[in-house]
Amino acid sequence: FLRYLRQANVPLNEYTFPPNKVANVQPQLERLIEKNYHLHRSSRDAYRSYLHAYASHSLKQIFDVQQLDLARVARAFGFTAPPKVELNLKAKSRAKMEKKNGGGDKSSYQRQSGHTFSAANPYGKRDPGDKRQFSR
Q1: 107-117 pLDDT, tens digit each
Q2: If you compute the radius of gyration of the chain from its CA atoms, what whole number of angstroms results?
Q3: Who is most buried in 40, 53, 60, 90, counting CB within 10 A?
Q4: What distance in Å separates the CA atoms of residue 43 and residue 50, rounded to the nearest whole number?
């Protein structure tokens, strides 16, 4: 990666620190993440987001998620072992689905997905002939 930065004329400075001046906070971080539910969940979400961002980077020859050491990345997020994360790297976006099917209108997406849910209509639309009534 440094090779690409040098080609782009990005100024780089390297710093060295004496090992006795750097505190080892890794064990405390791992214990804290392990004991606190909310921190654990936030750390797991951040880990998943990091992997998604890494996998979707345009410079695949540098940012290859298959070559990534997941145990070391997990330790950076405070885990002793990498959490189980679903990557779904093959998922298609809505825009790609619309482009593939040649439709850009809302109804084509609704036919593809099988529902008409939206933020404005969270319960979906019923068919005109559907006379069912539901109660709680």
Answers
A1: 544 444 445 55
A2: 23
A3: 40
A4: 10
**DSSP characters for the chain?**
-HHHHHHTT---------GGGS---HHHHHHHHHH-HHHHHHHHHHHHHHHHHHHT-S-TTTS-GGGS-HHHHHHHTT-SSPPP----TTPPPHHHHHHHTT--SHHHHHHHHT----SS-TT-PPPTT-------
By CB neighbour count within 10 A (0-12 exposed, 13-18 middle, 19+ buried), where does 66 fall? exposed
Q: What is the pTM of this model?
A: 0.57
Enter the tokens of residue 126.
């019923």
CA distance 95 to 103: 10
Q: How far apart are CA 83 and CA 134, in angstroms?
A: 41
Residue 134 has which token pair?
A: 């539901």
Cβ(71)–Cβ(82) below 8 Å:
yes
Taking the C-alpha atoms of residue 82 and residue 33, their distance in angstroms, rounded to an integer, is: 13
